[in-house]
Amino acid sequence: MTPQPPPIFVVPGMRVGCMPYTALSAATLECFFDPICLSATAQHISTLPPTAWPKPLNS
Question: pTM here?
């Protein structure tokens, strides 16, 4: 079994789940109330190549 690499960027309080509702209900959303965290998250997302962006489910 291959060990997982460490995450590149962690958004505090965010959770991942199979269903968006499950993840959002478990998340604290604390990053959205912290201007420094929100800015760092936006900066990290803007550096991702378009191929890494999520695609719509109907495409």
Answer: 0.60
Q: Could you state, in order of their start, the residue ranges of all structural domains in the chain? A: 12-45
Q: By C-alpha distance, which of 33, 54, 53 is closest to 14?
A: 33
Average pLDDT for the chain: 86
pLDDT at 59: 56
Distance, CA of 48 to chain centre = 12
- Cα(45)–Cα(31) distance, rounded to whole angstroms? 14
* Total residue length of the chain: 59
The answer to whether the CB of 17 falls within 8 A of the CB of 23 is: yes
> Up-side HSE of residue 20: CA atoms within 13 Å toward CB?
0
pLDDT in tens, 15-45: 888 888 888 899 998 998 999 999 998 898 8
